[in-house]
Amino acid sequence: MTDKSLWLTTVGAIALGMGAPAMAQDNAAPQAAAEEPGADIIVTATRRASPLSDVPIAVSAVGAAAMQNSGASDIRTLNQLAPSLLVSSTGSEANASARIRGIGTVGDNPGLESSVAVFIDGVYRSRTGAGLNELGEIERVEVLRGPQGTLFGRNASAGLINIISKAPEREFHAKGEITYGNYDYWRLSGRVTGPVGDNIALALDGVWSKRDGFYDLVDGAGNTIGDTNDRDRYFLRGQALIEPNDALSIRLIGDYTNRDESCCGAAYIEARERRPVGNGPSYTDAPFNRIAAILAGQGSVIPADPYDRDLAITPGRDYVSKLRDWGVSGEINYDFGNAKLTSITAYRDYKSRDYGDYDYNRADLLYRDPNTYRQFKTFTQELRLQGSAFSDALDWLVGGYYANERLTLQDNIRFGADYGRFAACRLMAGASANSNFTAQQLAACGSGLATSALITGTQANLNAGLIAALTGRGVPLPIATAQAGAISTGLGNGLRALAAIPSGTGDVASIYRQKSENWALFTHNIVHLTNRLDVTLGLRYTRERKRFSADLNNNNATCAALQSSSLPGLAVNPALGSAATLAGGILTLGCLGNGSTTLNALDLNDRISDGEFSGTAVVSWKPIDDLLLYGSYSKGYKAGGFNLDRFQLGSTGLNAVPAVYAPRTNADVTSLRFAAEKVDAFEVGLKYSQPKWSANIAAFRQEFKNFQLNTFNGTSFVVQNINGCDSALTAARTCDSGDVAPGLISQGVELEASVSPVRNLRVSGGFTWSRAKFANRLVGSSDGRVPLDPALFLLPGSINSNAPQSVTTASIAWTPAIGSSGLSALFYVDGRMNSGFNTGSDLFPEKYQDGFSVFNARVGIRGKDQRWAIEFWGQNIFNTDYTQVAFSSPLQSSSPATSTTGQFAQGAPMANQLISAYLAEPRTYGITLRGSF
After folding, report:
1. How many CA atoms, within 13 angstroms, populate the side-chain half-sphere of residue 848?
2. Helix (H, G, I), strand (E, B) or coil at 457
3. How far apart are CA 668 and CA 871, in angstroms?
4. What is the DSSP-derived secondary structure letter of residue 471?
5. CA–centroid distance for 8 within its chain
6. Which pLDDT score is estimated for 702?
7. 728-746 burial string, b = 16+ CB within 10 Å, else e?
8. Which of 254, 365, 697, 871 registers the highest number of CB atoms within 10 A of its CB?
9. What are the distances in angstroms from CA 878 to CA 689, 766, 855?
10. What's the rounded Cα separation, in Å, for the pair 545 and 371?
11. Rounded mean pLDDT of the chain?
12. Structural contact between residues 838 and 851, judged by C-beta atoms closer than 8 angstroms
């Protein structure tokens, strides 16, 4: 869909009806509040139960009815109902990314906390991926937009997703549903709740789901041999609500999630080798891609259409995704009469194991072994005391928060049987406009048939070229011959060593540990200056300490030998030209990610500590009962940490010589640090609510300093703190610390509205226009001394990734009565229309996703009092093809300088980086039977 047609669709959807997503409900009136026209939405976004129309912040509330109608089982479906939110998943569902107003944290690096925090029943979840589990019976979900730096336990610089499950009920009630759909999808869920004595109510929720994969796995001949991206999971949650008297309430929750799935495959979306016409951006296609030709010799198959969803991966390296997530929490509320005390205590243990093929093709280049895992053990304690004073002129709240988190990551990345030959052939093919070899020669090189002969020929060509170059500079022929022979022999032996790297070389048991401890004190106070004018003041102080350690165990003896050879000296000798480039390439690929036996002697330890004030100030005014006007300022904060990736060890952004050219030392540990992310946010808005319709409008500006950007550059994850500069950059691409300014600014307008023109009909929708744009001049540190990483050269002046500038959502729910027997029908449709956006954090143009629309629908018949229901449903009913996240396929380009057509303006002779993508789910449909008593 073009941006023009998207705007036309948007105008039509706005004319149909914009609005807040479907009703959330007050605990006291679960479903009635959602269905009854004019019922106001009760939210707890300010840690006080208040009607949505009275809360002076930007918040979307999605109730159980809307979640059910849209087919939601996790937070991804909120994309259809909250236009400022975008949730996507990448290499595994443990690594989900959520963005609000175009801001979020991306990538598979567990060392980064999310800019969008997730809370479930008041308990902070360590990473956004927890929201991709089954949620069970949900009361409502609140999406708070903008920094949340005062009330909620963990600071969040971009926003917050607050999930509230349904509490136990005092009357016995049971319900269940069974769903069957295409891809052999089965889902069973149920809930039982009721009283046990006069003061105790219990509830038990359970969900089980299983589905075939969305991708077929094929062999070299194209025959289907399996599938991936399937589903096999279950979820249990037990609750007890104890209310011994009117003043005391205790809610105990225990939950357990288990997943044993195959995830996540990725398809090639770009496999051409392109040559610039002039300085670009126009280009022509080369006859073949030299990287693809090498891979073809190793058995790889690149389908012509990624949306055929046929994947060819290394035999025996199936994607595996196993997860165990459990926790317990207790919430105690005690009413003293003039004040209320709330305590939330929780412990959570989250462990995921995601391993298998890591190059996303049939060649055996890279893989993660089955001992790979990540685990979070988190204890949290929150205390709040709130009440009123001065004849209710002051609504005050004070509190404290403590969290202790232990993160363990074992990340065992190993070379496959084809890696060495692939690396040597890639280097010999060259990175100039034309390949040094034909496609047939490269295929024979990759397969091993011609590897040795081509290395010998390359060595001879290097020798001849060096003799000619040296004699041309006046070096006597005998001396030139001796020097050229030594250099070319060193390079030839380096290529032979690289090609012979044994299968299984890499991490044997490399473990990273991060211990985080933080505490905070906060206060949030509403001063009622008049019965229509309020001032809200919030302040929080957070103290954060993190300790890092790593025990690396790597068996790559080839790297140690290469680093002790003549190659490092050759690589830094610019007079050697292409010979120096080749030497650097051998070291880079032979010591990929610093992988070497020399790592085993290191004892990496580091610690950071930080203290930060955050807070908010809001002025709100109700000129009439139905209208709220407000203006606010918020200061947000997200903690710094460590890049848990040996690939970046020793890379500071200031290296005169690449770190991989020499063994690493313990002093390099500080290069893994990244600083805290900070934001100043400004917002004005209005909320208007009538019995049959409501509308909310907000305009915002958010200025981010030290924005934590996590980028996969085709080799490793690069983490940098992005900042802007007010002055021109120096020749070294730095600036003075006094000129450092926000590096990313998100600003825009949000509009939500809903209308119930007649009984049983509700039209809802929303529209967001936002521009999350990087500054025109960028650096990689808060003092301006570190230049922007070369992989991020397209960022200055560009829109952030996964940040569509315009999004429209709309939904229609009609539940007309059928006769007078109590039967009713359901007709429901929702849609989300996005403008185009780039899905890669490096903003390569190959990763751009054109505008698209996704629609869901549900029709059904319901019995009296909704005791039973039969519903037919479809998601992505028009089978829209689109990319969630595109990325540079690991190692699959000739060099970092020839990766994208975006480099043509810099003089790149060609671009041949293969691009892979995690595709969105295709059309699904099925039937659901539901009953209750």
Report:
1. 16
2. helix
3. 59
4. H
5. 30
6. 97
7. ebeeebbbeeebbbbbbbb
8. 365
9. 34, 21, 7
10. 29
11. 91
12. no
- Using N-to-C axis directions, what is the helix angle for 419-429 and 439-447, rounded to 10°? 150
Q: Cα(720)–Cα(725) distance, rounded to whole angstroms?
A: 15
Cα distance between residue 894 and residue 896, in whole Å: 7
pLDDT at 68: 84
Q: What letter does residue 468 receive in the DSSP assignment?
A: H
733 contact partners, CB below 8 Å, separation of at least 6: 779, 787, 788
What band does 452 get if pLDDT is binned at 50, 70 and 90? very high
Q: Is the pTM here over 0.85, yes or no?
A: yes
pLDDT confidence of residue 593: 93
Give the start-end residues of each E strand in 89-230: 97-100, 103-104, 116-120, 123-125, 138-145, 159-165, 173-181, 185-195, 200-211, 215-218, 224-228
Q: Count the Cβ atoms, other than its own, within 10 Å of residue 284.
A: 10
Give the Cα separation of 504 and 205 in Å (integer). Answer: 44
Alpha carbons within 13 A on the beta-carbon side of 743: 27
Distance CA 743, CA 677 (A): 11
Indicate whether 35 pLDDT > 70. no
Confidence of residue 93 (pLDDT cuts 50, 70, 90): low
User: What CA–CA distance (Å, rounded) separates 933 from 655?
Assistant: 68
Please identify which residue in the block is written with the tokens 């050759």: 570
Rounded Cα gap, residues 81 and 514, in angstroms: 36
Query: How far is residue 176 CA from its own chain's centroid?
Result: 33
Residue 832 near residue 807, CB atoms below 8 Å? yes
Per DSSP, what are the bridge partners of residue 117? 160
The reply to whether omega before 445 is within 30° of 0 (cis) is no
Half-sphere exposure of 893 (CA within 13 A, CB side): 24
Burial of 77-103, coded b for 16+ CB within 10 Å and e otherwise, reads: bbbbbbbbbbbbbbbbbbbbbbbbbbb
Angle of helix 477-499 versus helix 578-590 axis, rounded to 10: 30
Averaged pLDDT, 729-754: 96
- Which residues touch 731 (CB under 8 Å, ≥6 apart)? none
Give ∠ CA 730-733-735 in degrees, rounded to 5: 60
| Per-residue pLDDT, 78 | 83
DSSP-based three-state secondary structure for 770 = strand
Q: How far is CA 237 from CA 26, 243, 408, in A?
A: 21, 20, 26
Reported residue count of the chain is 933
Please return the burial class of 642, using the count of CB atoms within 10 Å of its CB with bins 0-12, 13-18 and 19+: buried
pLDDT average, residue stretch 898-911: 95
Please give the C-alpha separations between residue 194 and each of 173, 198, 199, 457, in angstroms, as whole numbers.
6, 11, 11, 80
